[in-house]
Specification:
The protein is α+β, with helices and mostly antiparallel strands. The protein is built from ten helices and ten strands. The strands form three sheets. The protein has a five-stranded antiparallel β-sheet with strand order 1-2-3-5-4, with no helix packed on it. The chain has a three-stranded antiparallel β-sheet with strand order 6-7-10. A hairpin with a 3-residue loop joins strand 2 and strand 3. Helix 4 crosses helix 6, helix 4 packs across helix 9 and helix 6 packs antiparallel against helix 9. The termini are far apart.
Length: 333
Amino acid sequence: MALDPNIPAQFAEQTLSQFAIQTTKPIAGGLSGARVWKCHSGLFGSLCLRQWSPTHPNEARLQFIHSVLDRASERLAFIPKVLRDQAARSYWLVNDSFWEVTQWMPGQASYLRHPSQAKLKSAIAAVAALHGVWCEFAQKQDISPTITQRIEMLNEWLGMHDLVERVGAQVRGPTEAAACMSTIRMLHWRGPRLLEELRRANETRVNLHPVLRDIWSDHLLFEGDLVSGIIDFGTVRIDEPAADLARMLGSLHPFELNVRLAAVEAYNQQRPGHKVDAERVELLDRTGTLLTALQWMRWLILDRQKFNADSGSLFERWQTALARMMGEDLVVA
């Protein structure tokens, strides 16, 4: 094996050798702190080796993630299979982190560069099919974990009466200051209204089953116009399916409400017995956009958190969230 020095040698010799891995190539692992390698195996072809962050997930969550992946990959070709060693283990604890090996999914995250109706149709069909499998695996009716969590988060932000002072002590330069002031203005302009809408929505019990929760443009792979892979399952949990539609559609078509509404209708046509409410999807999208901007302000300004990513691209994601909220205010006005 052409061993990357960041892969523990003993782990490679005792465990990875069972998968006949011949080469490893490091790949950017996103913002979670995970590390990812693309590997070539003489037995299995292209594989994905992942070292999870030491803080996420814990063992119980990783077991759950693998259980829902197993169920989905049995039926859906665009969901990666989880590989197991000779002792049937699907993960290994090495140096305080969990490691796993999964199928490497083909294709490119090409939607934003080359969007099309055919691609959107395929993405909706893929998510509808995945939800169909997962609702057979585990389903119940209850209040929404996402909405409950967002009520708590908005209450926390709105309760920070010294937020302007805290941010002012941390900003460096006019660009950061402008982004922070826009974010805080949006919090106080949009937050109370959104909080009231969330509370009303939380009075309704909805269907809950495993959902992705963080399916966005980078996690949707395409070959041509067809979805060839969905990747990154670190945030999977029991929740409402509208959360996936809000996250995905807000990422693929952030400024096109009519496209998002039509996509929700297309989803409902494929799951007539499990329809989601389009207004609920939009509420989740709007609250998610505000909380995303606030989270970027916390990470980049208040906490000065370091990421293994270009700071300019992260700031751009913050600016996109702000632009979405400002555009919505123009429509509302």
